[in-house]
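Two proteins were folded this term; both appear here.
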Amino acid sequence: MDKTQQGSVNLSVKEGVATIEFSHPAQNSLPGRLLAELVQAIEAAGADKDSHIVLLRSAGDRTFCAGASFDELSSIRDFETGKRFFLGFANVINAMRRCPKLIIGRVHGKAVGGGVGLAAATDYCMATQWATVRLSELAVGIGPFVVGPACERKLGLSAYSQMAINATEWQTAYWAKEKGLFNEVFEKTEQMDDYLERFTKILVNSSPDAMRELKRVFWQGTENWDTLLDERAAISGRLVLSDFTREAIEAFKAKA
């Protein structure tokens, strides 16, 4: 089967929590189809009257999200296709931004590129000590342009710049907590899930109106992101066509 057609996004609602779980056999990477399904799931969770908060997680016990699908990236041959692919990440981030409900992140393992962007776009994010992070885009000749605004908003310009420039080095989960990407870091996944269960129950019993207003306040100043992320997707869509990027992606795939 074509790897870009593999994977799934599932939405379930239980006891006031709308859980969105995505999965892909290639380390939970995200081809365009899954990105579109994530947008649909986030919008559905935001509109669901039975849910008060949203929990975003991925399947498995190792990598949270490996970012963009390299199989799909390597198949891009024109600017419009490239821009459309990167708009997939832009659309997910904007859907998370516009969602009227608080989105809680559960990051159990490594987050790369777009995976860091997903964590940054949550409103509160919990992780394990195994949740190392890396913005690897520059290493393949692109740059974290689309996820950049979300990362900078959480990490600050200095830490975001460090990650964007030092694209081959992993940062620890504790570094990510110190910089503001993660709110809590746990030694074991079981500890994180126990805390999450208690934490989400508290939020479910909190005022929906107050949480909605808090979310609106948290995201003030991002009203231009529809335009901004469209412009950033265009930059990535152009760079992905370069010989440097093509060769770098093929070299990466050969090692995988």
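Next, the second protein.
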Amino acid sequence: MPHETDNAPRFRDKPVSFVRRSGRMSDAQERAWAELSPQYLIDVQRDAAATSILPGTTVSPAEVYGRPAPLIVEIGSGQGHAIVHAAAQAPGTDFLAVEVFRAGLARTMLDADRAGVRNLRLVEANAPEVLEHLLPEASVDELWIFFPDPWHKAKHTKRRLIAPAFPPLAARALRDGGLLRLATDWEDYARQMRDVLAGADTFEPVFGGAWADRFDGRVMTAFERKGLAKGRDIRDLVYRRRARPVGAAT
């Protein structure tokens, strides 16, 4: 009998926003992966690829974290510096780090454990599939995307995460009034982000002028320092998820 989700979209038919590298993890990262994964890592059913999610697979945040609480999701969490710091500062909020690089996830778990952070979970997966399949609709209070890969060569810009196909996925996961926070040190990508969100009727800007103020909840990371060292300006954007039409499914 065919699986009921056989006709669901397969994101591997589209360009992904990353190239997965197989860098070797340090001994400490290997130990962290082996010892801390049961506590921090969400185990998901895979589809065609190692970082895919089987359509129809959904988790319940309240069950994952053992409580109902606001949920903040960071896409492309890297080494985890921003989200571990945020989770430590807000124990009443739950946090989810979405990343495809295993070494970064291992480092995140290691730092979270050292800091005694227990309101953080991680998922090793392609971000659009997390938003489309893994997270329930309207389950996210804030979605963070800080310094995503700019894919600055013209032939690679099709791989950028913030493109016209992205707002519907973000809008699905965010609750009404939820926030989408973006930051980049590449001006042309910042302008693309702004143009893409300007064309999305499910979002409204939460800033005046050309750019938003720097999000004070974002700690300074290596990516931001690198951009500043090269003389690039950091540009922030923040958008609010508009209310769903009355009667719309959630």
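The domain at 30-241 is CATH 3.40.50.150 (Rossmann fold). Confidence is low (pLDDT under 50) at residues 1-12, 16-20. These notes refer to the second protein only.
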